Amino acid sequence: VTAGADAQRVAVVGAGPAGFYATDRLLKSVDHRFEVDLFDRLPTPWGLVRAGVAPDHPNIKVVSRVFEKTAALPGFRYRGNVEVGRDIQHAELAAHYHAVTYTTGASVDRRLGIPGEDLPGSEAATDFVAWYNGHPDAAAAQFDLRTRRAVVIGNGNVALDVARMLVLTRDELAGTDVADHALDALTGHDIEEVVVLGRRGPAQAAYTTPELRELGVLTDADVVVDPAEAELDPASLSWLESDAADGTARRNVEVVQDYAGRSPKGLRRRVVLRYLASPLEIVGGERVQGLRVGRNRLVAGPDGGLRAEPTGEEELIEAGLVLRSVGYLGRPLPGLPFDERAGTLCNTDGRVTDEDGAVLPGVYTAGWVKRGPSGVIGTNKKCANATVTAVLDDAEAGALPTPAGSRAAFDELLAGRCPDAIDYAGWELIDRWELAAGEDQGRPRVKIVERAELLQRATMG
Amino acid sequence: MPYVITAPCINQKDASCVEVCPVDCIHPTPDEPGYDEADQLFINPGECIDCDACVEACPHDAVFPEDQVPAEWTDFIDRNAAFEAVS
Predict the structure, then answer these.
(1) What is the C-alpha separation between A175 and A316, in angstroms, rounded?
(2) Residue A246: which pLDDT band, with cuts at 50, 70 and 90?
(3) Which of A40, A69, A103, A163 could bridge A367 with an S-S bond, Cβ 3.0-4.6 Å?
(4) Residues above pLDDT 70, as percent of chain A
(5) pLDDT at res. A303
(6) Are A102 and A334 in contact (CB under 8 A)?
(7) Which chain A residues are closer than 8 Å to B22 by Cβ?
(8) What are phi and psi of A336, to 5 degrees?
């Protein structure tokens, strides 16, 4: 396509990191000219940078400056407060855009599948994260923190975020952009001990080393590891010494073993890292009273990886709150083939396919709904770039379908269907209000959590 | 506290880190002038957001948080900062 040719229109659905990185690459394409409409079901963009990254990690949130640069590129439009699959159907996007790229993330928590999981006090870590981060869907949520012990099931960064949020001091939390409704609850509760439970050992944990190190420098909480659990089994040890092991696993083991050698300072709260234990049953009457766990040992699986195998030993951990963080799944999108087991859109390297692997022309995916919930924010840049390479290759080959509907026709459809859709200027009004409110309070931002208020600010400033 | 690229990157310049850096603060990238001449890649300490993506991506274990840089390579902290100052 030569300069001056009409731009091809791309709808990107989901304004988190993967959506912004895909948009950026498309708008910067030299060989093909694109216009991108970036949709989000929330009024606010940035996905998990706003609603997932912990409030005490302000540095990470600086990544939003990169997204702001993308939003300033010619050809960019934001369409917030529009839910594809509800307000607008995939077929309608496909009828008006040359390509549709889904970057909707993985917002559904994987369940434990054990008895007692639905008792009050047994919660998804995602809901807890959404609540303290001021996600509009969690504005009315409540968590009963009147218990001495909480258990977090899972060994990823979300598990550590949630554990840390339960033991930060008021001073540490008050200066962040934590949702106002969560500040008192998170710092005034009775929880003295947070147990983080891993099915396998420290060498198999999924968290990153800096997250693990943070537990060692908390103001008013000790980190506790039973030396017996920090000691590696022979199979993990030989794996760790082999070339197959990654640096993160090696460093994580070092940190956990350092923790195991520490004497608690007698601080107000404790984070206890437990390993080789699987949840068997959440016990309680009216609400959660404890978690029955089974001890595991690691055995080599057929693929050479180490898997957990029950030893038969069991134990009851008394706790009034159980937060599960054992994996995340994408949400199926009406009219698109979905791999239920993986929790992803059926796709080959970012090209969405039917269940038999045949490519659906003009439909793409990137980020967690493409590959599952792995990696850190930047992993989605690489992932989105790979998907856009597929879009560019298809554009070059003339394989992008020509839509029947025009840009003006879609805008009219959207205006009729979603009169409360928010454009980028509307988001900037919200953003400016939140930043100004934060400045008044000595915080980076004060989040508006009610959807209605977000919509109001987007029109009033 | 920014991250620092150290000695194992010299003459490797794998650039896996460039692909995953969420704020594009690692230079020179293979597309930038100066890539061929550079001995190694550098992180701009003023732009790094401490996300750890580069550590996970580096096949040579060359990247460390500033306070974790091995003693024999602490001079790389200044070298990363200096590279940005001139570029």
Answers:
(1) 37
(2) confident
(3) A103
(4) 99
(5) 80
(6) no
(7) 17, 63, 66, 376-378, 380-381
(8) -125, 140
